[in-house]
Design goal:
Order of helices and strands: EHEEEEHEHHHHEHEHEEHEEHEEEHEHEE
Helix content: 25-40%
Number of helices: 12
Structural class: alpha/beta
Radius of gyration: 22 Å
Largest sheet: 10 strands, mixed
Number of strands: 18
Length: 429
């Protein structure tokens, strides 16, 4: 059986949680390989709703869930999330949950720096969650991070603290803030260390062992390809690589680990925070999409910006991330529209262009080129086969396939796990 990698093929918030939850019931292991607790998945299982930010979605069903080294870990957020889920009856133990011992930690100083920078940025605001994700990745690359494995060597941490403080104290002085209280930081780390260390392990080794045993591994991406630090709408992006290729480096498995790459694609387009958005609708139609789609961020509760489906963008993200097939979500939100538009490309300063240019100013000047199709009567809600869909809804789906040059593997018609039209089973191919 192949592995499966689930990634968002837009700006995140595409409905990955439901898809991952469904796949997790058939996987032996679920792995997070990038991002931090700025990611958010909402899972609806029966009459219970679970909100996850850091834990892999498999944990809800008791599937072995691992946090890979490509993730930056806030140990206090982890403890809070585990305690909340345990309060909902989810069992989380070292037997079904593990954290890579080489994961960098998100420290209080990272969140503080994140907030200070955004407050001072003026028009340069990126729209971060303020949770310290970016600064933690910076410290990782700058070789001054404190990692999970360091929690068992806190008495020998002085050289790392020297490097960390030399960098951050200078930045904090620029913002008129006091230097890091090293004693306070160490005290906090000593307090949280036992909780985190019970789950710490060489995840690469665990994955190698389960792979040899023939396990089906599900890699769970966070955010979306358009938020990738290299391939997204830079600088309005996250601080990690969100593409499927990150599976290898972010988990410790080889480059062939990704397997079937399932790109999650919303039947329209949304994004949270600042940055270019060619098909954004700042009118009644955009408001209608947002209200019907309940478009509020799982982590931040920020209202999402809404617009028509952008086929040019999704074609690009599918190519960059090697998507094998897409899972189309929230088709039911389009029920009842008389006309539906699909963006097929753009014009830039009057010239046609069929891809998203790299420069932010060019991105902001794009004018979408639309193709308009008729909407459909009736409803797609709860459909579980093609026969349950209105003919015009099927036409819309087929047109998306043509434009993005990638087949549809499944169609989601409600938040419920069972309300899915399965075209191609990722774990069966």
């Amino acid at each position: 059986m192949p592995n499966v990698t689930v990634i968002g093929a837009q700006w995140g918030d595409e409905g990955k949680g439901k898809i991952v939850d469904w796949l997790a019931t058939r996987a032996d292991v679920v792995v997070r390989f990038q991002g931090g607790h700025n990611a958010g998945h909402t899972l609806v299982v029966g009459d219970k709703t679970y909100k996850l930010s850091l834990l892999p979605s498999g944990i809800v069903t008791g599937t072995l869930s691992l946090v890979g080294n490509g993730v930056v870990l806030d140990p206090w957020a982890l403890k809070s999330e585990i305690e909340r889920l345990e309060g909902q009856g989810v069992a989380i133990t070292p037997d079904n949950f593990g954290i890579a011992d080489n994961c960098p930690l998100i420290l209080p100083v990272h969140g503080e720096l994140d907030v200070m920078r955004e407050a001072a940025a003026g028009k340069g605001k990126i729209g971060t969650t303020g949770r310290g994700i970016g600064p933690a990745y910076e410290d990782k690359v700058g070789r001054r991070a404190i990692r999970v494995c360091d929690l068992s060597h806190l008495d020998e941490l002085e050289p790392q603290l020297d490097r960390l403080c030399a960098h951050h104290d200078a930045l904090r002085a620029g913002f008129g803030e006091p230097t890091i209280d090293r004693a306070e930081l160490l005290a906090k780390l000593r307090e949280i260390a036992p909780f985190v260390l019970q789950y710490a392990q060489p995840v690469w080794k665990r994955l190698n062992e389960v792979k040899k045993a023939g396990a089906k591994i599900l890699f769970e991406g966070a955010q979306g390809v358009l938020l990738d630090v290299d391939h997204g709408t830079y600088p309005f992006v996250t601080s990690s690589n969100t593409v499927s290729g990150t599976v290898a480096s972010g988990s410790g498995m080889g480059p062939g680990a990704a397997g079937f790459v399932l790109g999650i694609v919303k039947a329209y387009t949304t994004r949270v925070g600042s940055g270019p958005f060619p098909t954004e609708l700042e009118d009644e139609t955009g408001q209608r999409l947002g209200e019907r789609g309940h478009e509020f961020g799982t982590v931040t509760a920020r209202k999402r910006r809404c617009g028509w489906f952008d086929a040019a963008l999704v074609k690009q993200t599918c190519a960059i991330s090697g998507v094998t097939g897409i899972a189309l979500t929230k088709i039911d939100v389009l029920d009842g529209f008389d006309k539906i538009k699909i963006c097929t490309g753009y014009t830039l300063d009057g010239e046609p262009i069929d891809y998203l240019p790299a420069n932010a100013q060019d991105q902001a000047r794009l004018e979408p080129a639309y193709e308009e199709i008729d909407g459909w009567e009736g409803t797609t809600v709860g459909a579980r086969s093609w026969a349950d869909l209105p003919a015009q809804a099927i036409k819309y789906i087929r047109r998306i396939e043509e434009l993005i040059e990638c087949p549809v593997a499944s169609v989601s018609t409600s938040p419920e796990r069972e309300d899915t039209i399965l075209v191609r089973d990722p774990f069966a191919d």
